[in-house]
Every structure is written in C-alpha cells, then in structure tokens.
Amino acid sequence: MSERGARGRADIDAAHLAALNAGTASARTLTEALAVDNPTLMQAVLPGSDDDLCIAAEQAQELGILRRMTRIGAALANRLDATEVERLAGHTSDTVRGWVCFLVAASPTTDPALLLHRLRNLADDEHFAVREWAWMAARPALLRDLDTSIDVLAGWTGDPSERVRRFASEALRPRGV
Q1: Which of 11, 41, 69, 103 reaches 20 to 30 Å from 91, CA-CA?
Q2: What stretch of H or E contains 15?
C-alpha cells in the first residue's frame, strides 16, 4: 500500500483497516472509506452504545454509502448530547466526523442559515470526505428553502477558505456529472 492509500479493497493493509475500524486513522481514498465497518467503528468510538444504536449501525452497513451515513447520523441525532457531538466533530476518524454531518442535518431545524452555521467547520474540514459529507448531508434541507439557502451560500463564496467556497458551489449544484 502506498502513502497515497489503497486503490482496491485488497490493497488495504490489515493494520490500516484495523485502525480505520478503531477510529484511530482516517481514510486516504474512497476505497478505504468504503471499507470501514461502521458497527465496529461505532463500538470503538461509543463503547456504551445501546442495543438500538448498534442494530441501526448493523442495518446501515448493508446500505449504499450515502444511505448508510444518513441512517447512522439520524440514529446518533436521537441519542447524543451537545458535548458528545462536539467530541465526535473533532474525532480523528473522517467517518465519525462524517456521521456528525448527517447528525446535524437530521436535526428538526427548517432554517438553512442555522443548518449551514452548524456545518461550517465540517464544510472546512481538512479531510476531503468530510467536506463531501457536509454538502451531501445539507443538500436535502437546503433545497426545501432554496431562496434562503442561496442567499446564505452566496455570502460563503467570498470566504477566505477555499474549502468553504467550494462547499458553497457544491451544495446546490445539479446532480450528475
């Protein structure tokens, strides 16, 4: 395996996969991100998880990646307090920080400005996957109030951070290539 990360599932070093599943390493490629065993990671990150949360993670593991992250984020949103959410938002694991994106998006707020405020640091995350999760998680809520969303995101286009500017352009762009 190169320093750039695995290109195929078989290329993932066993020690690195174990670190991904323990939450002590971040994925370097999409292949590595897809290989994460979310139930194992959840037990490592939230060892006192109740049975329902463990079952939700197990069931989510069988879904496609976007639905998996959405399901886990929603399950966590019903169980974690603000202190735990803050801890997970700063976690070593990009997958865990991705869960937080979907957890934030699962909140009952209908205000795009508040949602974007809560996602701001994740939209500016150092890891490519977390930035992608942030806009993917936000998009459904942003589309419900497109005018407000555009107004808020227009302000983000002048942000000093290239990552935030990219988020502003990605969050509402049409789907597909």
Answers
A1: 11
A2: helix 14-22
